[in-house]
Write a structure and sequence with these properties.
156 residues; mainly alpha; flat
Length: 156
């Protein structure tokens, strides 16, 4: 059924796994460094990582891939030309690892920094977050509306 393409498909699967695992390692490193910067008392590094997260999460992944692959190559060419060095070509695999690492690093950073604050906030509030929400927010969430907007089973 595959007509001899099983070897190519297997090689593609291996390359995909290499790309995924390598980019996750880079993303975890970026996320840990960012979460450490956020938890430190240095406000500047926290703001830098907040801006990084906002920018990376706001731009589509394909646009970032194109910008990093082509933009990084152009920037490297400009630097090597100004220094009088031979041009350096970026391997597409390395560009993919860097791109996916930056993209997923923003998500790792956000999740790691939010999870630490979320866990530390519960004891401050005096208990479990599950019971805090109904007591504090449900009375504010319920606003009676017009009877015509309610489903027929809810009308009294």
């Amino acid at each position: 059924m595959l007509y001899g393409f099983s070897g190519v498909i297997l090689q593609g699967a291996i390359v995909t796994l290499e790309l995924a695992l390598s980019s996750v390692v880079l993303a975890v490193l970026i996320g840990l460094v960012g979460a450490g910067a956020k938890l430190s008392q240095n406000r500047v590094t926290g703001l830098i990582f907040e801006g990084y997260t906002t920018l990376i999460r706001g731009v589509p992944d394909l646009v970032l891939m194109l910008l990093i692959f082509y933009g990084l190559q152009i920037a490297l060419n400009v630097v090597t030309d100004s220094l009088g060095i031979d041009q350096i070509d970026i391997d597409p695999m390395v560009a993919g690892i860097i791109t996916l690492g930056f993209i997923y690093g923003a998500y790792f950073y956000r999740n790691l920094s939010r999870s630490v604050y979320g866990g530390a906030e519960r004891p401050y509030r005096g208990g479990d977050g599950f019971w805090f929400y109904p007591r504090a927010n449900l009375p504010a969430d319920y606003v009676p509306g017009d009877d015509a907007l309610r489903p027929a089973g809810d009308r009294q």
